[in-house]
Amino acid sequence: MAIVTGAAGGIGRACAAALSRRGAVVIGADLRDRPVPGGPAITEFRRLDVTDPEAVDALVGEVAAAHEGLSILVNSTGLYPSAPLTGIGAGEWDRVLGVNLKGPHLCVAAFARALVAAGRPGTVVNISSTAAARARLGAAHYSASKAGLDMLTRSQSLELARHGIRVNAVAPGYVKVDSSVNPISAEYEDAVLSGIPLGRVGRPDDVAEAVAFLCGDAAAWITGEVLVVDGGASAGNAGLPPSGPDGRVRSPR
């Protein structure tokens, strides 16, 4: 039994589908009322504001009471707005940090209370971003929230390990989701693609398969880790030509 937040979004839907294919009963939750058409069959879909502690506690408590096998939580809810540093007001800062950092804290805390009370082990995967370690123009609030989420993941893993609850994160690089929701110019995508050694942008399923791995028995001795899924982009700058031993740029042969 799994709870997937952000289940109406591209990565969240893919995570729900990946877990469902592996036999999990999935409860989807999102601020939107329902998944978009074409999404995976979710056993139950609930509207949830992850920044509302009472709503989070109620959802997790109801699911835990109705389904004895609750053991997986995937925190996929997130905001990725773009704004210059001087244009990020206090309200926008609080909104992004609320969804991207406060939300995963509230969800994991509620999930852990339910599992500890039941004496049941479990696993959590938080969806982070490579922006946590690599700043991006126009995304100071987003990058800060994801950097905080990486450390929150490690802290959660330390505190919950004694209860048999593993906590990890997956940090995607550039993943192409519904372009009508978050339109990206062809020029920007080409620039991103030039820095990805594996030669293509990411897909939601790339992230979902990593999430499913961390939720499975094969990852039983993994906790506190942030698994980067970015086609090798964080390994170095694949868009630069090679340089010689004297540091001068050499043309590829």
Automatic annotation (TrEMBL):
Enumerate the CDD domains for this protein: SDR_c (cd05233)
Alphabetized Pfam families for the sequence: adh_short_C2
Q: Which residues form the Ketoreductase domain?
A: 2-210
In Gene Ontology terms, what is a biological process of this protein? Answer: fatty acid elongation
What Gene Ontology terms describe what this protein does at the molecular function level?
Answer: oxidoreductase activity, acting on the CH-OH group of donors, NAD or NADP as acceptor
Q: What keywords are assigned to this protein?
A: Oxidoreductase
In terms of Gene3D superfamilies, this protein maps to: NAD(P)-binding Rossmann-like Domain
Domain of life, per UniProt, equals Bacteria
Q: Family assignment?
A: Belongs to the short-chain dehydrogenases/reductases (SDR) family.
Q: What's the protein name?
A: SDR family NAD(P)-dependent oxidoreductase
